[in-house]
Structures are given as C-alpha cells and as structure tokens.
Amino acid sequence: MKIVKVNNYEELSAVAADLIAKQIKAKPASVIGLATGSTPIGTYKNLVEMHKRGDLNFIKVKTFNLDEYCGLARDDAQSYYYFMMDNLFKHINIPKVNIHFPAEKDSDWYDKEIAQAGGIDLQLLGIGSNGHIGFNEPEDVFHKFTRVVDLAPSTIKANARFFKKMEDVPKTAISMGIGTIMAAKKIVLIAGADKAELVKELTKPVISPQLPASILHFHPDATIITVTSR
Ligand code: GLP
User: Are strands 67-69 and 172-175 parallel, antiparallel or unpaired?
Assistant: First the structure.
C-alpha cells in the first residue's frame, strides 16, 4: 500500500486526476471504476478541465461506478447516476453506452459485465467515515461480489446531509463487493483532511472486515492519497 501525502484538497484532486489521466493516455480504452461522495468532486473537475483543454479523450473509456442507492430514480438529484452526470459525464466525450452502474438484477450480473469489459484497470475509491469502501460496511466478513447491502446507521446519518428529511435517506444500496474492488488492476483511494485519523488506522498492519478499507494491504497496486497537516 503506497501512501502519498498532500497538503490540501486541491493537491489531492490534482494528483488523483493525473493518475487517472495517465492511465487513459497509456490505454485509451481503459476501464475505470468511479466513486461518488464529496471527495472526488475536485478530481472530476480536473478531468473535465483536461478534456476541455483537449488533453484527455474519453471516447474509448468504459466506466463502472462503485455503488448506487436502491429506490432512487436516475433523475433523482441524490442518485449517484445524477451525481456522475452532473460532475463528470455530461462534460466529457464518453459514449453513454460505456457508462455502467450497478442495479438490482441477478446477483452476479455486474461482476460479469466488468469481466466482459476486460476487468477494471483503475478503481478510484473514497472512504466512508466508518472505513467503508463502496458501500461495504464494517462487518464480520468480506463480501466478494456486487450485491444489495443494508447501510450502517452511521452511513445513513452521514448521508442525511444531502436529503431534506431523514425518511428520504435510502437504507439500502447496491455496491461492488470487496472482491470486485480488489480485482481492479490498480486502486487509488482519496481521503480528505477529515479522514486523516482514519488513514492512520488504515496504515496499521492489521486487516479486518471491521475496517473494510484495510483489505487494500493485500492489493499489489493500491495508492492512498491523503491530506495531512504538516
Ligand atoms: C459514500 C460512498 C463512498 C464514499 C463515501 C465518502 O458512502 N458510497 O463510496 O467513499 O460516501 O464520502 P465523502 O467523500 O463525502 O466523505
């Protein structure tokens, strides 16, 4: 697990976007796994700027998003589909057929789709304040494949800031499994200043499903970009 320390959110976003751009330039038909949450917004802004400058072409890129809420329509402003359209897809030249989101279909549908695309070349991750990646919550086991998950009370509480009423906050989501994420050839996890303590926990040589992101110790090419006050 490689740790890259940066000074602020702007640097975090630039470093993450550069890694994604480097991947796409090296392999124009890259398969990229994407994340939502507030942390990747700056990364996506940088990618959009690179595209607008004519430096980055998404015409052959395929994307697979990590997760989506259950029960929200795609045009719901809180859906992750809407988020991705708003922050990235509608500003770049990716063909719509190349964009993939998990959905409540057969359990192994999404994993098969990813495999058919050749597997994920680079997976971008954020991290939940309880250590979750995607929506793989702290549990007694690691789940391998994409599936419907019950969100932890702490996650529901954290997500409430985006909804008008507590009743509107989804209680379930569909998420890539830990195995789906770990199968990516390269992983880049971005953690803002609010997650600095969590990243310290993560760097301890302990792997536990109670801290789902700790599984990244087993990945051969995982980079954590973390904002630290130096
Ligand atoms: C949600 C997403 C995660 C994301 C997390 C952190 O829970 N499912 O993939 O990492 O939010 O969000 P933020 O970046 O806003 O802290």
Answer: antiparallel
Beta bridge partners of 175: 67, 147
In the chain, how many domains are there? 1
Catalytic residue, chosen from 65, 98, 137, 219, is: 137
Q: At 104, is the pLDDT very low, low, confident or very high (cuts 50, 70, 90)?
A: confident
With a 6 Å cutoff on the Cβ, whether 135 touches ligand 1 is yes
* Three-state SS sequence of 41-69: HHHHHHHHHHHHCCCCCCCCCEEEECEEE
Pick the closest to residue 43 from 77, 68, 20 (CA basis). Answer: 20
Which residue would you say has higher pLDDT here, 98 or 106? 98
We report the CATH number of the domain holding residue 170 as 3.40.50.1360
Residue whose CA is at the smallest distance from ligand 1 atom 10 = 126
Greatest Cα-to-Cα distance within the chain, rounded to the nearest angstrom: 48
Nearest alpha carbon, ligand 1 atom 3: 134
Among 79-93, 104-118, 181-195, the minimum mean pLDDT is found in 104-118
Domain of 220 in residue numbering reads as 2-227
SS3 content of the chain, % helix, strand, coil (to 5): 40, 20, 45
The predicted model gives 137-166 an average pLDDT of 94
User: What residues does 41 pair with on adjacent strands?
Assistant: none
- Report the nearest-CA residue for atom 12 of ligand 1: 37
pLDDT at position 95: 98
Tokens of 87: 């922050």
- Per-residue pLDDT, averaged over 148-156, amounts to 94
